[in-house]
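Treating backbone geometry as a discrete language has practical consequences that deserve illustration. Part of our work consisted of pairing the sequence of a single chain with a tokenised description of its backbone. We regard such an encoding as a compact summary of how the chain folds. The amino acid sequence and the backbone structure tokens for this protein are reproduced below.
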Amino acid sequence: MDHEIYETDIYDKTRIRHISILCDCEHPEHQFILSYFVGDKTEMFMDIHLADRGFWLGLIYAIKYIFGYRSRYGAFDEIILNADTVHILKNFVFEFMNQPTTSNTGADACKQCLGWKRVANSDDMESWKYWDELPDQSKIVVKMGLIKPIECPRCGGTGREND
């Protein structure tokens, strides 16, 4: 098996969805995990396994690091993904991008973010709701990274008016 999709619960109601991807060589040191909070379309996290080289080789790397040695090529490893795994990964990211955002739409919804917990980093700091509902062809400034969602300063990212 080259992948596994699973969910975990943290705190009281927060769910995290994960996909674990294993290299085609099936070596356990060649893997990564993508994760996101269900209902939050602002961030996806990638955890990459760092290969364990053993004590003595690790000690040599540590000594080189202490004395400032850096390879001019950087530190690289690879993960080989076959077409089926890429398709599964694409579907996982697509699922993340198209999930409904959880928001607080009740009477106590924040007046600035409208319960969406995030606002745009624009001068007006309008609710991220308006940017999220734009058609894809109109989201060019979002895709370019010029407009990004940030935590609502009024409610502190809770989506509710502060009491």
